[in-house]
Structure formats: C-alpha cells, structure tokens
Amino acid sequence: MSFVSRFVSYVSRSLFLYGLTHLRTGSTALSIAHTLIALMLTVKNPILGIPPLAGVVVLYIASSMSRQPLYAAILATIPATWMGLTHLAITALRGYADVFGALQVFLRAEIGALHCLYLLHSINLSELASIIARLGKEVSLAIPLFWRAVALLLREASEMIYVHRLKREKMWRSLAMMFVRCEEVTEMFSEGLYLKRYSFTPRPIYSAKAMVYQTTLLSIDLATLVLATVMSGGL
After folding, report:
1. Is 11 inside any structural domain?
2. 136: burial class by Cβ within 10 Å (0-12, 13-18, 19+)?
3. Which residues of the chain have pLDDT under 50?
4. 147 and 96 share a domain?
5. Structural domain contains residue 90
6. 108-138: per-residue pLDDT in tens?
7. Which residue segment(s) compose the domain that 189 sits in?
8. HEC profile of the chain
C-alpha cells in the first residue's frame, strides 16, 4: 500500500471508523469547552494535557470505540513529528540541537491534535443542523450531507488508490479519477435531494448518557486546570 493510500485510509478511519455513534448525541458546546480547556492546558505544559486525554480514551473505551484513539494517534503523529523535527532542525542550525524542546513541541502537537479529533468525533450534527436551519432549510441540509459525502469519498479514494497501485497506474491517474468521482457524487446527491431541501426539518437528538460522559470529562478538565493554577501559584 502506497503512502498516499495509507494516509487516506488513516484519515478515513480516524474520523469515520464507527460512523454516527452516541457520542454525537451530546452537547456540541460541552465538547467545544472541553477542547478549549484541554488545548489551553496542553499549550501551557504538555503534561497537563494528559489527564483530559486519559479521560477521552476512557470515554472511547466505554463507548466501545477502543480502536478510535489508536487511528487518531497515528494520524496526529504525522504533523506532530514534522513539527518536532522542524524545531530540532532550526535549533541545530543555530548551533544547539534542542532535543527536549523538540520533544515538547511533538507532545503539544500530538496531544492537541487528539483533543481536536475528539471534537470532530463528538459534534452533534443534528444540533448544528437545527441551529443552522434558522438561516434556511437548504443550508441545514448541508451539514449531514457534507459529513456523509466526505466519509464516502475518503473510503472510495483509499480503495481506488490501492486498486490503481495493483494495476501499476500512475498517481496522477488516480487523482484524476478521484476528482471525477467527486463530481459524480456531487451530482448524485444534488439530484436525489433536490426536493428534500424544501421539506427537511432537522431536530436535535440528545442522549442523557452522552451528556453525562461530557460533563464528567469537563469536570476532569476543570479539576486539572484548578490544580495547575494552584501549583503555579504556589511555585
């Protein structure tokens, strides 16, 4: 499997491995609050981002999504490694290779990316669609449609690149076929949902279980933030 095919496969699995899970029946506001607090802690010190991340991993396991953090970590490692090596190269050119600093950059990028991916996994699409519906029914239909279309195209792109590699086709041919397939999917959805846009009325779907998970996760974030503030004040 080529690097491009493997990369597309990891992107697809890290975002759409389990489809529409009950994590998407919580509050988007709570997910955003968790992500912002976790990112703030991670930027301050990557070690502080670990307790919230541990809570996220436990949440995945409790939701029968144990493979999700694995693929998310693999995907996040790509930009994190690049950023860490870039920092190391820049400091080496200045006369001193800052290995510890490069490790910190890597950890910040890795942990921060994992928290951002959790946000993408827990966005309540029905809630967003119902909010955007106030701007117009046609716009609200774009939220679930976009999410399903991206999942479909990523899966087909991975399979297409793999098949073309077996046939020893050049990469530019695979990319060209991917663009053609995108046009086909766009036309297919446009024709099939043309009348639906006038009658589509999104309603938010919530789950008490998901809300409890999110509240527990936010409590871990706030406890870590308070502890970090107290410790920094004491020092």
Report:
1. no
2. exposed
3. 234-235
4. no
5. yes
6. 999 999 999 999 888 888 888 888 877 776 6
7. 136-204
8. CCHHHHHHHHHHHHHHCCCCCHHHHCCHHHHHHHHHHHHHHHHHCHHHHHHHHHHHHHHHHHCCCCCHHHHHHHHHHHHHHHHHHHHHHHHHHCCCCCHHHHHHHHHHHHHHHHHHHHHHHHCCHHHHHHHHHHHCHHHHCHHHHHHHHHHHHHHHHHHHHHHHHHCCCCHHHHHHHHHHHHHHHHHHHHHHCCCHHHHCCCCCCCCHHHHHHHHHHHHHHHHHHHHHHHHHHHC
The verdict on 209 and 109 lying in the same domain is yes
In a shared domain, residues 182 and 91: no
Q: How many residues does the chain have?
A: 235
pTM of the predicted model as reported, rounded to 2 decimal places: 0.81
